[in-house]
Amino acid sequence: SISPVGKILQKAKALKKDGRFTTFLVPVTESKQTVYVDECIGNANARQCISQAKVVDVQEETGLRVIEVSHAKEAYQIMTQTG
């Protein structure tokens, strides 16, 4: 079976930047990732920041085709498809 790996969004961004890849196989449940975005209000003298959780769809964020897989056999079949 394929286990969770984490930091999928960062890995997908690196693949996209490389430019040679259009599809990214990820473990089941990891095609979306929770990221934390700091939202700050105020000025240099009085500034308050809070982190907001945001669920990001890795495919929408990167433009890569993201496919969730649960077994190595499934990943192999996808990788060896022709067409």
Description of the structure:
The radius of gyration is 17 Å and the shape is elongated. Helices cover 29% and strands 39% of the residues. The strands form two sheets. Strands 1-4 form a two-stranded parallel sheet. Strands 2-3 form a two-stranded antiparallel sheet. The chain has three helices and four strands; from the N terminus they run αβββαβα. Strand 2 and strand 3 (47-57) form a beta hairpin. It is of the alpha+beta class. The mean pLDDT is 92. The longest helix has 11 residues, at 8-18.
Give a topology summary.
Blueprint: H1 8-18, E1 23-27, E2 32-42, E3 47-57, H2 58-62, E4 65-69, H3 72-79
Please summarize what this structure is:
The chain has 83 residues and is of the alpha+beta class.
